[in-house]
Amino acid sequence: MNAARVPLSIACVLAACALSFGTAHAAPQGRVAFAEYEIAGPCTDFVLDAGVAGQTHVAGNLRVGESRRVTLPVPTTAGAPPLEPRVESGNESAGAAFRPAVRFLQWVERDPRLARRSPALRARPAPAVGARRVRAPVAVLALLAAAFLVGLALLRRTGLAAILALVAGGAAFALARRGLERDAPPVEVIDGLAGEGQWQRARAARDALTFPSEGPTFELATEPAHAPLRIEAEIEPGRPARVLVRGATLVATWSEPWPADALDPRANQLAPLAETWIRADGVWTDHGAWPAGAALGPAVPGSDPPGWLVAGLPQGLGLVVGRLATGAESEGAERTGESNGTTTFVRSTWP
Fold first, then answer.
1. Distance between first and last Cα of the chain
2. What is the DSSP string of 188-223?
3. How far is Cα 48 from Cα 98, in angstroms, rounded to an integer?
């Protein structure tokens, strides 16, 4: 009986090894994976449909006879290997002769630096991004003010006043829907460990986020974790794709090289900081601005660091956190993607 089980056990082990080998290339990559495609013209647009994970809408311009190999982002389900998406024509009314020929070639491996990140960096909490701020356009405010003044003049003529209220209310509603300004700039955090040259940058935003690169150098997480993604990409290189998920928080995380002593108390080798806080012996102290290349200044009367920035950090260690000055960035940073309006913070263990 035991002898009969030996071949069965060996077969099971070999099958498990084969399965592991076959799926190694398709390991979970967060909410986005990258695949290489060959595209033959004519082509203006097409869609990569990944089912419940979402879609990638690809735009470009290839003429008849032109072909190109491109790397495109594909939505994936959180915690699951990527699956080859279904290719759909962007223009369903076009004839078969005018639809692009899109052929899947292979999955593209992630940047190996992502796997080499310290577990302590991976455990750092994601940047906190607030809900969108909604502001009424000036035209709406001016209309309401004018209606109020005219309404005062028509106090004794209730019929006309009621008609005016209805007209002004309808016009204000129409203007508000067309002109509401929504502003929720991305928030970034550069995380480091004293003495280590491989740091981590995370970028968070609400509803929409530009990818930090055109290739698989980052991981993407969403909250809710399984929200379907809409990715907008282009065939022509030079512009990273953009992901849109209404009502969701999007966080892109990637590895970034910095000097091992980037925040040495004797010299700031990271970037100019507009605000700096130090935690020593469990107490936070405000040190104000910290210019690039300068030594850390003395403690000054000030405020505490933002609560979300220091929440969840390891206890019993010296820490430095700060906010980069507007437009500040070190020459050694791999700065790509969104920059306008982005607020960047830094936090690291303290030497």
1. 63
2. EEEEE-TT-SEEEEEEEEEEEEE-SSSSSSEEEEEE
3. 18
Hunting for tokens 């469990």 — which residue is that? 282
Bridge-based pairing state of the strands 273-280 and 319-324:
antiparallel
Q: Which of 155, 182, 36, 47 is nearest to 104 (CA)?
A: 36
Amino acid at 186: P
Burial state string for 85-106 with b = 16 or more CB within 10 A and e = fewer than 16: bebebeeeeeeeeebbebeeee
Q: d(Cα 192, Cα 217) in Å, to the nearest integer?
A: 18
Mean pLDDT, consecutive 10-residue stretches, the chain (351 aa), reads 46 40 47 96 91 95 89 94 88 51 94 92 89 55 66 67 69 57 76 93 96 95 95 92 95 94 93 96 94 95 93 90 80 48 91 70
Count of other CB atoms within 10 angstroms of residue 236: 12
Q: How far is residue 256's CA from residue 46's CA, in Å, rounded to a whole number?
A: 33
- Take residue 123 and report the two structure tokens written for it: 């455990």
Buried b (16+ CB within 10 A) or exposed e, 247-278: ebbbbbbbbbebebebbbeeebbbbbbebbbb
| Peptide bond preceding 42 in cis form (omega within 30 of 0) | yes
pLDDT tens digits for range 94-145: 444 445 689 999 999 999 999 999 999 999 999 998 654 445 556 666 666 6
Query: What's the one-letter identity of residue 212?
Result: P
DSSP assignment of 289-329, as one string? -B-TTSPPPPP-S--PPPHHHHTTPPTTS-EEEEEEPTT--
Please say whether the beta carbons of 173 and 205 come within 8 A: no
DSSP class of residue 84 equals P
- Nearest to 176, CA basis, from 133, 134, 138, 140: 140
The predicted model scores a pTM of 0.75
Q: How far is CA 10 from the centre of its chain?
A: 45
Give the integer Cα–Cα distance in Å for 91 and 89: 5
